[in-house]
Every structure is written in structure tokens, then in C-alpha cells.
């Protein structure tokens, strides 16, 4: 059911923003819609998701209406600052959004459109399990205004999927891609590398299979062992091996080389696209620190430098909204030093990089050493930007430490 919520200050029952918070109506506004339902819990997953036996009174068939209540509440909050804006991006994440009927997703999207408007050319993404995607579902989502499908492929190798507790049929990835294409949707495929028992040859097969499906976008994430997950317990008991850092580095380099050869360019450490237009604008908004409102249990939001997060359980979320109260559990407002650190942490991950001029003096002094170590691009640094090399992407945390000492 996901990791614990962060500590923070209490959030007001009406969701009001602090009186001195400056909210600019000129900054892009994104919408994240969390759908916290899954058929089974994957052993590695630390997201705020719930299977049918964990709902404890919450109802999937009432969920769309609950989210619509939070959308209405958010409009009231933003109107007090004159900062209601059309959504530049909308992202349905989870969980498994496509466990809900497509009509429910369409109603939630219509609620965003009716309340805020959706900007011309907006990116509207739905995450999908391959087994839940049919031509009829894809057509209904496209008709509702969805523009992009993010398909959880994870691997093309059955024993790797089994190690991750993924239950979808690998053959259905191709079916889902075909359904999305027929409906006119852009396609992204998500992969995970470093699962117990996965070899470099297994990983190469998965990347090559993904490339053969010709998606517009590929995400490839290293498996991270989160505390409290089934996989963490298995590793602690010695039942399966922990991920091998060196093997994961080899897997990353293999993916980057295969994707580059197929015409994909990296634009964030774990993301590649066929063109700048196919980059995930919603995720770029997170890395660039713009404004977004996250709807649903456990969802996080960021407006004007203020962050808050909702109560985790769907039943608690529904109860708060039934009382016309904000579902926010807590919030925080990082100080200037924390914001600078986060800016370096996030913006060094993207291909646009970070202006050298924004670094503190010690960080600027370390740029030369990072160039010498092959971690950042020398030519880009001369032009005044910190951009990671492939080796630097593998050692991004070390680069950030050097830039923020």
C-alpha cells in the first residue's frame, strides 16, 4: 500500500493556500489523476495502490465522482488567487487506470476540461496494463480526448515478468500498441531492468522487442528495492539475490546504445523519445518544477513552491470529500536552500541541463573536475550548461553531490 507519507505541517480543512504564497497564472499547470486500484500487487511496487481485498469499504464504482469533488474543491482554492489555468498536461497514473471503465476515465477528464479547460495541443496520458487494453477501450479513450498511452511492458521475458510478479501476457503488449495506434494515440513503453535472475541477454531481448514495436517513447527504470515490499523481504531472507549495480550499469548502457541506434534520443536519465515533440511534457513539468495538482489518495501537488499530499487510503479520501473537506494530509514549503538543491538534483537529469551560473561558487569550481572525469559534457559547459554524459547519467547522484558541496 505504498510507503509512508512525508512529515510536514498540517493542511487546512478547506485546502486554502498560505496568504503570502505567490501563484503565477503564467506558469504551466499540470493535472495528475491517481487511480489507486490493481488486480494484484507486484512484489517490487511501493506505489499507493490497493487490491480488492485492501479497499476496506472504498468503492471503485464511486471513485470518479470522488475525484470530481476534489477537482471542484481545487478550483475554489485556485480562484482565491485568480490562478485557475487551462491544463497543459493531464496524466492518469496508478495503480492501473485502465481497471476503471473507460467511461469513468472520460468523466474525470471531462471534469478537468469543464473546470479548468484543456490547453490546445495538450498532452493527455493514460497508463495501461497490456491485458486491459482493447481496440474498443483505446477508441473510447481517444474519443474522450486522451492523446497518449503509456503501456507497462516491463519485460518481454516470461521469467523476468514472473520475478516482478507481473501477470500480463507478454503477447498482449503488441496487441495494446496496435489498438493504440489504430485509435490515433501516441505510444510509450515502460521497461524495468535488474530483476532477480535477469541476464544481460534477457534485457537486450526486452529492449529489442520494444524497439520492434516502434513506440514514440521508451522509459527504462532500474529496479529499486523499496523497504516494506515483498521483494525486499525476499532479498532480506536470502530467497532471491539483490540487484547487481554493475550489471544494472551494463543494462543501462545497452539500452542507451540500442535505443540510440534505433533513432531514440535521451532527454532524461531514464527516458528516450523519437523527437522532442514525443517527450513526456507532463514528467518534464515535474523535473522543471512547474505547477501541478495531484488528485486521488496519496497524490502529491505543487503550486507556487508549496507542496502537499493527500491521505493515502481510498476510504479516508472519500470520507474527507464527502464532508466537503480537503483530502490533504500535510504540506511543506521548502526554503531557498532546499529549492536550490532540488533544482540541481532534477534539472541535471534532463538533456537541457542546468545553467552553470545558477550553481554556488564551490559547485562552479567542481565543473572542471567533472569534465575531466567524463561525467559532464565539456563543450556544453563552455556554453554555460551542465549536461550529463552517458557515464554521468550512471553517476548522476555523484555529479549532484559535486555540484552542491
UniProtKB/TrEMBL annotation:
Which terms are listed as keywords in the entry?
Answer: 4Fe-4S, Chaperone, Cytoplasm, Heme, Iron, Iron-sulfur, Metal-binding, S-adenosyl-L-methionine
- Annotated membrane-spanning segments are none
Which Pfam families does the record match to this protein? Radical_SAM
Ranges where the Radical SAM core domain occurs: 23-262
Broad class of the protein's primary localization:
cytoplasm
**Secretion signal span:** none
Locations listed in the record:
Cytoplasm
**Top-level taxon in the UniProt lineage:** Bacteria
Q: Which InterPro entries match?
A: Aldolase_TIM, Coproporphyrinogen-III_oxidase, Elp3/MiaA/NifB-like_rSAM, HemW-like, rSAM, rSAM_sf
What is the purpose of this protein? Probably acts as a heme chaperone, transferring heme to an unknown acceptor. Binds one molecule of heme per monomer, possibly covalently. Binds 1 [4Fe-4S] cluster. The cluster is coordinated with 3 cysteines and an exchangeable S-adenosyl-L-methionine.
Homology family: Belongs to the anaerobic coproporphyrinogen-III oxidase family. HemW subfamily.
Q: What is this protein called?
A: Heme chaperone HemW
Q: What is the source species?
A: Microbacterium thalli
Amino acid at each position: 500500500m505504498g510507503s509512508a507519507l512525508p512529515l510536514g505541517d498540517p493542511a487546512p480543512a478547506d485546502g486554502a493556500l498560505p496568504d503570502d504564497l505567490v501563484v503565477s497564472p503564467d506558469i504551466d499547470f499540470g493535472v495528475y489523476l491517481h487511480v489507486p486500484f490493481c488486480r494484484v500487487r507486484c512484489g517490487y511496487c511501493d506505489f499507493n495502490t490497493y487490491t480488492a481485498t485492501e479497499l476496506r469499504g472504498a468503492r471503485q464504482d464511486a471513485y470518479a465522482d470522488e475525484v470530481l469533488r476534489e477537482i471542484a474543491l481545487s478550483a475554489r482554492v485556485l480562484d482565491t488567487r485568480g490562478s485557475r489555468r487551462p491544463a497543459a498536461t493531464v496524466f492518469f497514473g496508478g495503480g492501473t487506470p485502465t481497471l476503471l471503465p473507460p467511461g469513468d476515465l472520460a468523466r474525470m477528464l471531462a471534469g478537468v476540461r469543464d473546470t479548468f479547460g484543456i490547453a490546445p495541443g495538450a498532452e493527455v496520458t493514460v497508463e495501461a496494463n497490456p491485458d486491459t487494453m482493447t481496440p474498443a477501450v483505446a477508441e473510447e479513450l481517444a474519443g474522450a480526448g486522451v492523446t497518449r498511452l503509456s503501456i507497462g511492458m516491463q519485460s518481454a521475458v516470461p521469467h523476468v515478468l514472473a520475478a516482478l510478479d507481473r501477470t500480463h501476457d507478454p503477447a498482449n503488449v503488441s496487441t495494446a500498441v496496435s489498438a493504440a495506434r489504430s485509435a490515433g494515440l501516441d505510444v510509450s513503453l515502460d521497461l524495468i531492468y535488474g530483476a532477480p535472475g535477469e541476464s544481460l541477454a534477457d534485457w537486450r531481448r526486452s529492449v529489442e522487442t520494444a524497439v520492434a514495436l516502434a513506440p514514440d517513447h521508451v522509459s527504462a527504470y532500474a529496479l529499486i528495492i523499496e523497504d516494506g515490499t515483498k521483494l525486499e523481504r525476499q532479498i532480506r531472507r536470502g530467497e532471491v539475490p539483490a540487484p547487481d549495480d554493475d550489471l544494472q550499469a551494463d543494462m543501462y548502457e545497452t539500452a542507451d546504445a540500442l535505443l540510440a541506434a534505433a533513432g531514440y534520443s535521451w532527454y532524461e536519465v531514464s527516458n528516450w523519445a523519437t523527437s522532442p515533440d514525443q517527450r513526456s511534457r507532463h514528467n518534464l513539468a515535474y523535473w522543471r518544477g512547474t505547477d501541478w495538482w495531484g488528485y486521488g489518495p496519496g497524490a502529491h501537488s505543487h503550486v507556487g513552491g508549496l507542496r502537499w499530499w493527500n491521505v493515502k487510503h481510498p476510504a479516508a479520501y472519500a470520507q474527507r470529500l464527502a464532508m466537503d473537506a480537503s483530502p490533504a494530509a500535510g504540506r511543506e514549503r521548502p526554503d531557498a536552500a532546499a529549492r536550490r538543491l532540488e533544482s540541481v538534483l532534477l534539472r541535471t537529469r534532463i538533456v537541457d541541463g542546468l545553467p552553470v551560473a545558477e550553481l554556488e561558487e564551490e559547485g562552479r569550481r567542481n565543473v572542471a573536475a567533472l569534465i575531466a572525469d567524463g561525467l559532464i559534457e565539456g563543450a556544453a559547459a563552455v556554453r554555460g550548461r551542465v549536461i550529463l554524459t552517458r557515464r554521468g547519467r550512471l553517476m548522476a547522484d555523484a555529479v549532484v553531490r559535486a555540484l552542491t558541496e
